[in-house]
Amino acid sequence: AQSVTQPDIHITVSEGASLELRCNYSYGATPYLFWYVQSPGQGLQLLLKYFSGDTLVQGIKGFEAEFKRSQSSFNLRKPSVHWSDAAEYFCAVGAPTEYGNKLVFGAGTILRVKS
Amino acid sequence: ETGVTQSPTHLIKTRGQQVTLRCSSQSGHNTVSWYQQALGQGPQFIFQYYREEENGRGNFPPRFSGLQFPNYSSELNVNALELDDSALYLCASSFIAGGLEQFFGPGTRLTVL
């Protein structure tokens, strides 16, 4: 079965510092991978996605992620974190259902930004 | 372009009651998926609707049921509420049944007492 692991429950970084959030997936075929962000009390906003092609994908808000098949990873990065980036981040993999597709999410990583 | 909307925003029910949550899909989208997000966890897939029929289901009991209407809006119904049903319920829409790029609404926070 498909699964996603986000090893870090909480991460704290200083404003202006670089950020890397880890994501490992388990999926037999070529994965479709996503990063979503959730602010408190809000729904999920798509940051970026990987379907195929270039393994380094660019997203919104200055985020990027790199797909590494050999490591089954899809880590999210940002070179310089802003206080407004404080939120919870979810990695997800697309998985087939009987007739369509669903998203399988990791447990999330809470990002705290200190000034 | 109108995004995904959900109603109500918050809801408080007691154990054993029934609840209906509503979702309007994003303009141009014909598929709706529902997810349950318990506190401190990632969203869990409940089911998906396409062309007014259930198009896939996660590991949820039959007391979780849904509907999709001709205008692609959707309802999630939960019968015989249990305390563990307390969660944020998220609706997501996509353009086609196989569409993995799903756009989420703000969610409905359900509290079961």
Quick overview:
Chain A is mainly β. Chain A has strands at 3-5, 10-14, 19-21, 24-26, 33-38, 45-50, 56-58, 64-68, 73-78, 87-96, 101-105, 109-114. In chain A, a hairpin with a 6-residue loop joins strand 5 (33-38) and strand 6 (45-50).
Q: In total, how many beta strands of chain B? A: 11
Report strand % of chain A. over 45%
Please state the average pLDDT score of chain B.
93
Secondary-structure element series of chain A = EEEEEEEEEEEE
Kindly state the mean pLDDT of chain A as a whole number? 93
| Strand segment tally of chain A | 12
Features:
heterodimer; A: 115 residues; mainly beta; 4-stranded antiparallel β-sheet; B: 113 residues; 11 strands
Task: Explain what the structure shows.
The complex is a heterodimer of chains A (115) and B (113). With 115 residues, chain A is mainly β. In chain A, 0% of the residues lie in helices and 53% in strands. Chain A contains no helices and 12 strands. Chain A has strands at residues 3-5, 10-14, 19-21, 24-26, 33-38, 45-50, 56-58, 64-68, 73-78, 87-96, 101-105, 109-114. In chain A, strands 2, 5, 6, 10, 11 and 12 form a 6-stranded mixed β-sheet that branches. In chain A, strands 3-9-8-7 form a 4-stranded antiparallel β-sheet, with no helix packed on it. By secondary structure, chain B is an all-beta fold. Chain B contains no helices and 11 strands. Chain B has strands spanning 5-7, 10-13, 19-24, 31-37, 44-50, 53-57, 64-68, 74-78, 87-94, 103-104, 108-112. In chain B, the strands form 2 sheets. In chain B, strands 2, 4, 5, 6, 9, 10 and 11 form a 7-stranded mixed β-sheet that branches. A 4-stranded antiparallel β-sheet of chain B has the order 1-3-8-7, with no helix packed on it. The N and C termini of chain B lie far apart (37 Å). The chains are: A mainly beta (115), B mainly beta (113). Chain A binds chain B through residues 4, 32, 34, 36, 41-46, 49, 51, 90, 92, 94, 97-108, and chain B through 4, 31, 33, 35, 40-45, 48, 50, 55-58, 90, 92, 97-107, 109.
